[in-house]
# Entry
Amino acid sequence: MKKLVLLLATLACAVGLLAVDSPSAIGLKVGDKATAFTLKNSAGADIALGDMLKRGPVALVFYRSADWCPFCKKQLQDLEKNRPAIEAAGVQLIGVSYDAPATSAAAATKLSLTYPLLSDTGSKVIDAYGIRNAEAKGKAEGVAHPVVFIVDRAGVIRAKLMRDGYRDRPESAEIIAAAKGLK
# Structure
């Protein structure tokens, strides 16, 4: 009986920790409607999620900053390297951060990125998706937790890819697998 009580107590603690610490507890969930938005791209043009979805499903890649975050730069470059395979799987890539359009433009040029980087300079979209890193301070205030949402043509989130912490990011292969799962 003591073993059963100990096991149940351990499970209860584990479930409690998962509810607080699990990446899936942060932000919108699979099955939620993606929040509509219009943001500036690196050229200063308005890009609406709804317009992108008319062309097909979208992989919304929220990242911290292409200016100062080395983990973000590596992720963005990896996505560019695998962009043809990601697009062949049926989704369009869109990067979103709190970086200003000029910062995104400089990063896109420096990193040779061809997919759009959108600027959420007031972190309103980041907040609407519930993924602002509240612990970030100073120049990082307003950054998103790194997360990828796969959104179908109807605007429904069909996959959410996220890790604990900001150093480890979802792999391109995971985005491709999630995109193939839409078909």
